[in-house]
Each structure stands twice: as C-alpha cells, then as structure tokens.
Write a structure and sequence with these properties.
single chain, 7-stranded parallel β-sheet, globular, disordered N terminus, apoplast, Peptidases_S8_3, serine protease, protease
C-alpha cells in the first residue's frame, strides 16, 4: 500500500495530532536495549511469557504502574536480543538509560532503502567476474540448503524466482513460519520457506494501520528484487520488455530463502524503523538463517544506538553472515552507513552490460545513451529538439511534437519523462549533471527516452544553443554485452572513511549495483509511480541495495562449500580475492573516470571463483569484536551485557588498528606504527611470501617476509611497520597493498594511511 495522496495523509496526521495532543507532544517510541539473553536456544511459550513479564516489570518500576507499562511496550525482544520497544516520555527514557542493566536507549528512528529506483545475478551475477563458473556453482551445490534471510519490503511469492521445483525437503533446522494469517493468498513453499512482517515500530510513528499492512507480501518491488538476486531459482527467458533476455538466477540459486518485511511506505523519507529492524533480527536468528542480506541503512551513529549494528552483532555471534549496503549518498567522502566491523559492507559498481539507445543530432553526431523504454519511435525520423528550460520559457504548446532535453536532478528521472509527456513531447533525453558523470541508469520510461552522460549532455546543450533549428532522433534500445570499461564505481555509491571508526576501512567490497535485472512485484509498475499501470515480472533497478545481495548470494555459496567457516573467514575470503582492475586491465575508476580509491570499493570488485579458494583468511572470534568495542571507550559492564558472556576488557585496551581485519587503515600516523595481523591457512600446505605496494610517502616493512603453513587451520602472526618518509605526501589519505602469495593464491589487503 502506498500513500497516494500526500495532502490526505497530512490531514490525517494533523487530526491525529489534535486528538492525541496531550500524549503525542511528550511521548516518542524508543528501543530499550538490554544486551543478550542468557537462556538456552530452546524456548517454551512459558519462557517467552516470563521474559515479556520481566520487561513489563522493569518498565513498570519507572512508570509506577504495571498496566501502563503493558500499554506502552509494543515489542518484547525475547529470543536472542534482550530488550523492548515502547512509547515513552523523554524524561522516562533518560532515566531508564541510567540503569546499570541497560546498554542503551535510543529513538525508534527511520532508515532508508538503498535503491535509486527510477528516482534520484541479471541475477546470473551478471558479468565482469561476478559470475561464478559452472564448476564452482556445482561444487557449492548452487548454495543448496543454505538459508538466506532478507530484511526488506517482503516478497512477491508468486514470482518464478521462488519456485521450489527440483528442491528437496525444507532443512530440519528451520524454525520459521509463513505469517499469512491475514493474507490467505500468500503461500510459502520449499524455496520460500518463511516470511514474517514487522510493523509495530512503523505504526508507533505514523499511527494505527489497517489490515492491509499485516502481510509479508511485497507491494513495492524492492524486497523481491533483492531476495531473488541473492537466492532466486533458475528462470529462463527473463527480461525487461524483451531487453537483457536470459536465464535469471540468484547468487545461490538453490538456497532456501526467507523474507522479513520491515520496510513500509515512506514517512519523512524513511521506510524502515529501528524497533521493527531489531525485532526482525531477533526472529531471523531464532528461525535459523545462515546469511542475512540487509539493503537499508541510516545516518551514522554509535554501535549501541544502531539497530542494524546491534542486530548484526547478535547474528554474527550465532555464526550468521550479515551483508549490508553502503548507502546511496555518494560521491562525497564519509557518506556511508553500516560500518560495523562485523558486517560486510558493499558499495555499487557497474557491469559490462548496457542497454544502448543513441541520440543522433541533426549534424549527424551520434551520442550514446541508455534506456529501457517500452515504446520507440522510428529510428530514422528526426524531431525538433528543445531544452526543458527553453520549453518552459517559450511556453511550448502540447501540439508541438518535440524531443525535450532534461537535466538530471531534483525530481525522479521517470517523473521527468512523465512531465515531458504532459507537455506534449514525443520523447525525452535525460542528461547527467556533472556530479553524476558517466553513471547512466537504464529506466523503464513511459515514453521514448534515453539517458546520456555529462559529457554527451554538454554536447547536446551546446548543439541546441548553436543551431537555429536543432533536431534529433533516438534509436531503439539494444542490449550490448562485454562493454568497456567495466566495472567503474557508481556516483551514488556512498564512500568512506567511516566517520565513527576511521580505523576500519569501509566499504569492504563492491559488486554490481547499476541496472541489475531481478524479479519484481506485480503490485507496482516498473517505475513505482502511481501513473505507471504497466506490470513486469522482472525489473532493472540500481543502488547499493542491488549490490548487497550479490555478495549475499556469494556468501551463501561459501557457507555451503565451507560450512565450518566463521562469518569473519567468509568476509576475508571475499575481500582478499577481490580485484581493483577493470576489464581493460586498468585501475577501477569512479563515475567521472578518475582513479577510484578503497574508500569507494574497499578491497575491490568481488570475484566469486577466487573467493571459494582464498588460501589464507583473516579470522576473528567474537571476543575480538568485544575488545574493539572496549577500545572505543565503552565500559566493561556494558560490553559484558552486550555479549552475555563472561568478559573482561584488555588492560591496556587494544589498538583499534590491531583488529585482525583484512585491510590495514591508519588514519593518524605519527612517525611510525607497528600493526599486528594473523593469517589462518584454509587451503593446501605452502609457503607464502609478502609483497608490498607502498603508499606514497610511507615505508612499509613486513616481518616475517615469508610464512610456511603445513596444515589446514594453522595460524601465523606477522607485523607491519608503517613509517612516515614524506609527511606532506601523506597529508591526505594514500593507498597501497600488502599481498601474501604462494604463486597460486594472492591474498591482498588494502593499506590506507593518513599522517597526523
């Protein structure tokens, strides 16, 4: 369900405010986080009721009334995450936060889905090295019996991507449900083995919801797209209006999948609320997922006030790999979300497939664009060409058949096409502004249209301004594979450094996130605009929301192939085998065709084949993350509650740079520093030798320079000393690499340094 009338919603909101003013003015919804539960994995209904009652009693002690506490609490987190969500006065929330058993109290804030939509693994895992070879897929049994969960807008269960054809029984470890109590038409199967919805946090902000919200069904498209990218089954003949036709399949096409609907129609630009996110993580851990894909995020905040960081920590503690999108706030520095070291954070880059539609100007100049318009005009017929600004100034009438040239920005890309159509235009050329550079999105426009990069846009506007009667034609869309250069970073992809913990390089990795074709809801048109009455079974969407499930699918394969590997080992395998070269053999570039850095792509562009056999991994037990949190200044009592295991902070605290991470980042290097890392052998015996590509102005010394591994599981420690040679050369961040190799495996870690 979408709020089709902003005016009607505003009126309803004002009425609600007037009716409830005495409480609404002073109360907000909060999450009260109490750490981890100490009970065992098997819970009875009696146990759950006991925990819920303890939450009522705890809150009642602050409200002086058990009945008021019961009315205030709308979630009691009872499985693995301990806490509750409630409507509270600010003063009461502040008092609760002082209690020694409380880790944190934070507002039930809203978060965004990380898709650019048509606004501003094909599931074959696409191209440019992101497509596992058939032998690797077979060896990993296509991710069979791995369970991938997805926190998103739910799922469209009738999509062929969720067919259970040729799948065996549901894994016995599965404890989840198909929550279809109010939606009798929603069915799960041996592929889509579970679905739940969480909307109480959303309702606490927007007010009471009608029964149409009580379903895990995807009426938006985002959740279906991301879940099918991660684990969609084989579907032959998939395409968008006949373009990009092929066999669709997720990264782990035989994995079982489960949907956790936490995102709803936007309110104030936010769709997914913290209280619902914590509830979904708690149930997903209980249900038995192996991988969690989370294509959403919010503003950077400290870990104990971040629902995704809290939920993902508890998931990782239980052996679940959590993959998160970096965000779509690029290309500025320090714009990413989801920066916890226990998460795999994914940026977005292009692939080597284009949906080309050329603009041919009256002077015969051809300029490449991209589109997925479902309609076309004769390719050899020219029409008058006018800029949107000139059309507005000249008050061009609807009777004039023209091509309108619009500049990207301010409103939705497809909405510009609609407005052009309303103005009487036969077609539209959408031109990038400078900040978007060469990032082109193929949208399913409602009229013949094409999207050109900044340089080509400048050429078109120059032609219009210098020509008495400018004219142009737009060619029909054609699908082209093997395009170069690819990949390059999407302009929208959020960048590091992390504003909270700059000692941890984020994002960790990049994957295809532009013009990704995957399954879609049939409750919306491909543009998600009210005016769009078309329906598609597959759609092309862009965003770090789309790159995230590519890595989730790869994690599913790794889980099947290496079931004993920890989430940290899987992250290491993905990072250390990535590439920083495009298909021209040149360094990966950004959307303006300048050399990109690890703050855009992390360790590089994902390579699934290599990740299956990384040779060595940087492993991390959960206690190492606790040491990291202690080093940030959190007190020992809170950290113990957080983990619910006996724990003492190291004395003195560890250096943040010494977390055994697959990258090395020193944001304030003064003179010199020695960092420690440990590698574990997960391959055949061999001798690995270190090779260093030094950052400019920094000397790097590795000791020892070689390490001999005799057996699987053997671990060896090494030390990296970084010393300032030329302080001015490293006043801004500089970048290098450390590579351990036995001539078969190349275990590469980025080195990121800035002088103090």
């Amino acid at each position: 369900m979408r709020l089709s009338s902003p005016a009607l919603f505003l009126l309803s909101f004002l009425l609600l405010y007037i009716v409830q003013r005495p409480t609404f003015a002073t109360q907000k919804s909060y999450v009260v986080y109490l750490g981890a539960h100490s009970h065992g994995p098997e819970l009875s209904s009696v146990d759950i009721n006991r925990i819920t009652e303890s939450h009522y009693e705890f809150l009642g002690s602050f409200l002086a009334s058990l009945d008021v506490a019961k009315e205030s609490i709308f979630y009691s987190y009872t499985r693995h995450i301990n806490g509750f969500a409630a409507t509270l006065d600010d003063q009461v929330a502040a008092e609760i936060a002082k209690h020694p058993k409380v880790v944190s109290v934070f507002l039930n804030k809203g978060r965004k889905l990380h898709t650019t939509r048509s606004w501003d693994f094909i599931m074959e895992l696409n191209h440019v090295g992101s497509n596992p070879s058939s032998s690797i897929w077979k060896k990993a049994r296509y991710g069979e019996d791995t369970i991938i969960g997805n926190l998103d807008t739910g799922v469209w269960p009738k999509s062929r991507s969720f067919s259970d054809e040729k799948l065996g029984p549901i894994p016995s470890k599965w404890k989840g449900i198909c929550q279809n109590d109010t939606d009798s038409g929603f069915h799960c199967n041996r592929k889509l083995i579970g679905a739940r919805y969480f909307n109480k946090g959303y309702a606490s902000v927007v007010g009471p919801l009608n029964s149409s919200f009580n379903t895990p069904r995807d009426n938006d498209g985002h959740g279906t797209h991301t879940l099918s990218t991660a684990g969609g089954n084989f579907v032959s003949g998939a395409s968008v209006f006949g373009f990009g036709k092929g066999t669709a399949r997720g990264g782990s096409p035989k994995a079982r999948v489960a949907a956790y609907k936490v995102c709803w129609p936007p309110v104030g630009g936010n769709e997914c609320f913290d209280a619902d996110i914590v509830a979904a993580f708690d149930m997903a851990i209980h249900d038995g997922v192996d991988v969690l894909s989370v294509s959403l995020g919010g503003q950077p905040t400290f870990f104990f006030n971040d629902s995704v960081a809290i939920g993902s920590f508890h998931a990782v503690k239980h052996g679940i790999v959590v993959i998160c999108s970096a965000g779509n706030s690029g290309p500025g520095a320090g714009t990413l979300s989801n920066f916890a070291p226990w998460q795999i954070t994914v940026g977005a880059s292009t692939m080597d497939r284009e949906f080309n539609s050329y603009v041919i100007l009256g002077n015969k100049v051809q300029l490449k664009g991209q589109s997925l318009s479902s309609t076309a005009l004769p390719s050899n017929k020219f029409y008058p060409l006018i800029s949107a600004a000139d059309a507005k100034a000249a008050n061009v009438s609807a009777e004039e058949a023209v091509f309108l040239v619009c500049l990207r920005g301010q409103n939705a890309r497809v909405d510009k096409g609609l407005q052009a159509q309303f103005a009487g235009a036969l077609g539209m050329i959408l031109a990038n502004n400078e900040i978007n550079g060469n990032e082109i999105t193929a949208d399913a426009h409602v009229l013949p249209a094409t999207h050109v990069n900044f340089t080509n846009g400048v050429s078109i506007f120059t032609y219009i301004n210098r020509t008495k009667s400018p004219k142009a034609c737009i060619t029909r869309v054609t699908t082209l594979l093997g395009t170069k250069p690819a990949p390059f970073m999407a302009a929208f992809s959020s960048k590091g450094p992390s504003t909270i913990t700059p000692e941890i390089l984020k994002p960790d990795i990049t994957a295809p996130g532009v013009n990704v074709i995957a399954a879609y809801t049939e409750a919306q048109g491909p543009t998600n605009q009210i005016f769009d009455k078309r329906r598609v079974k597959f759609n092309s969407v862009s965003g770090t929301s789309m790159s995230c499930p590519h890595v989730s699918g790869i994690a599913g394969l790794l889980k099947t192939l290496h079931p004993t590997w920890s989430p940290a080992a899987i992250k290491s395998a993905i990072m250390t085998t990535a590439t920083i070269l495009d298909n021209n053999g040149e360094p990966v570039m950004n959307a303006s065709y300048f050399k990109a850095t690890p703050f855009s792509y992390g360790a590089g562009h994902v390579r699934p084949n290599s990740a299956m056999d990384p040779g060595l991994v940087y492993d991390l037990p959960v206690n190492d993350y606790l040491n990291f949190i202690c080093a940030l200044g959190y007190n020992e009592t809170l950290v113990s509650i957080f983990s619910d295991d006996p724990y003492n902070c190291p004395k003195p605290p560890i250096s943040l740079t010494n977390l055994n991470y697959p990258s090395i980042t020193v944001p304030k290097l003064s003179h010199s520093i020695t960092v420690t890392r440990k590698l574990k052998n997960v391959g055949s015996p061999g001798t690995y030798r270190a090779d260093v590509q030094e950052p400019s102005g920094i000397s790097v010394i590795v000791k020892p320079t070689s390490m001999k591994f005799k057996k699987v599981g053997e671990e060896k420690t090494f030390y990296v000393t970084l010393k300032v040679k030329e302080a001015k050369a490293a006043e801004d961040y500089v970048f290098g690499n450390l590579i351990w190799s036995d001539e078969k495996h190349y275990v590469r870690s980025p080195i990121v340094v800035k002088t103090a």
